[in-house]
Amino acid sequence: MMSIAGETQKRESVQKYILVVDDDALMRRSVAFNLEQVGYRANSADNAEDALAMSQRDRPDLVLLDIGLPGMDGLEALRGFREQVQVPVIFVTARRRELDEILGLELGAEDYITKPFEMSVLLAHVKAVLRRAGGDHQPADASHQPVTTGDLTLDPLAHTVNLAGRPLELTRREFDLLHTLMLHAGQVLSTQDLLSNVWGAEYIGEPQVVYVHIRWLREKLEAVPEKPERIITVHSVGYKLIPKED
Q1: What is the mean pLDDT of residues 45-61?
Q2: Could you report the per-residue pLDDT of 208-219, keeping only the tens digit for each?
Q3: 96 Ramachandran zone, left/alpha/beta (phi>0; psi -120 to 50)
Q4: Which of 114, 155, 200, 211 has the most neighbouring CB atoms within 10 Å?
């Protein structure tokens, strides 16, 4: 399962974003690592609910989706991906029943692969589905529209942020964190919500990552970072973005 394709695959896969949804941590990490090794951008979730939430902000080019997930299973999640973000899906599962394959493909999955598999085989499936999808799945949904909250404007496609007309330089994680907060302006998001939505399943249990990036964002957004007026801490709950006019 650990072999990976060569440089040709790497050149063809540049900048494509793939979301891996699997409750098997070892499988999830292995797949995401190998995808990144050949040039894809990868993120992961250990359940369908988090994966759908992540896709609303950062729309993947392809989802690798396990059927046997806790909570919402893969077949139900497939409907959500098709209806909400219109993204191609490959089922990756240990289930071998023919019914699952037929049902999954009838619901709209583009492909199906069973565990265990060689990584080179999975990469070939990924490459084929992305090639078939072509330009039909380019982002045109609400998650890629510019967002304005008070005097803050963020454009996901241009990857720009303006504060009262002044451009801000943000890292990718800072940008993703701010985007998530802006999409939920006025609402409290827990540290767990932010970890799942911005960093993915591999960072669950590492709240310090959120604390550090919130501090960095405040240094760039707040007039007095030690007395924030935009990104507010709601003690024992989480963080909330408050719209502020110029």
Answers
A1: 88
A2: 999 999 999 999
A3: alpha
A4: 200
Evaluate whether 57 touches 143 at the Cβ level (below 8 Å): yes
Pairing mode, strands 17-21 and 62-65: parallel
Q: Which domains does the chain have, with CATH numbers?
A: 7-137 (3.40.50.2300), 145-241 (1.10.10.10)
The tens digit of pLDDT for each residue in 187-200 reads 999 998 898 888 88
Burial 21-48 (b: 16+ CB within 10 A, else e): bbbeeebbbbbbebbeebbbbbbbbbbb
* Sequence-ordered alpha helix ranges (H) in 6-158: 7-12, 25-37, 48-57, 74-80, 98-107, 119-133
Q: Among candidates 99, 20, 98, which has minimal Cα distance to 61?
A: 20
pLDDT digits (tens, 9 = 90+) for 124-159: 989 888 888 774 444 445 556 788 999 999 998 888
| Structure tokens belonging to residue 146 | 């510019």
